[in-house]
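Throughout this chapter, every protein is written as a compact record of paired, labelled lines. The reader may check this reading against the record printed directly beneath this paragraph:
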Amino acid sequence: MDFNSLPAIKFLYSLDNRDYPLSVRRFCNPEYDFSRLVFSYEKKDISWVEEESKDTRKPYDVLDILYKMKNNCRKPVVISKSFFSVMEKSEDAFTPFHNDILEECDGESGVVHAPYLMKGAILLYSVDGGKLSVWVVLNQKQGEQNIIAPSTYISVFPKDKTKGAGHQLVIDYIPLIQGCFEPPIPLYTHAFTILTYLCLRKWAEVEIAEIKTKVKKEVKKGKKSIVITEDGLSYFTFDSKWYTEVCNNNDFNVSGHFRLQRYGDGSRKLIYINEFVKHGYHRKALIDKVRDGDITLD
């Protein structure tokens, strides 16, 4: 994923001086209005009904929010296929915590690429006042040219803390690009992707790798132009141990280390553990620890 070349990324991370929201306006239909869908979780399925949206904003209004996100975003994230599979399986488990995660992440903005998205497509998100905003940035053809621009904006908020079946998610959405209308399922998938990603990142044991990038840049040196290589925008890849169970029956050495030991009276003391030989180990998948009551997500 070459984040360094995406216009939205260049704007949000100040990699160039282009006014991205202003440049996107020429592709927008300023007269589009918001619509509302209320999604209900059912056993292994979802349903939805249409309602009247009370959001009176227009496309230009939601594009202008991107100015507030500039230089305030977490580093971009690429979700692996295995991580996304975990997200799909964990969907019901995290529905009671949608309100909690939006409260904990209030003020956060970021960029996510998920495996179901085409190359060059990303989700920009921002959390504010208990609501999740998502801009769906697609690589699409407009006339004789390809543009990478937000095609749809969605505003998401949970209606309750019900676990699984019966939980409702409200999505107000508005098309931004002329002629771009997303059906209900993709709208729901975008919202689910960000909400579940935030929950897993916060409460699950996540494997994170930072990917460093390089970019070539042409600069003037005297009367000549030369090409130099600089550090580009780094990003994170996410994997998860949520469903991973590990068994190791081999002996291995554990080096000496300090540990903050907790005592029954609530106090903690730093102790030193001498080097020893460990005779294998078994680590439950985190989802099993939750089910067995070993840990809680509260």
In short: Residues 184-203 form the longest helix (20 residues).
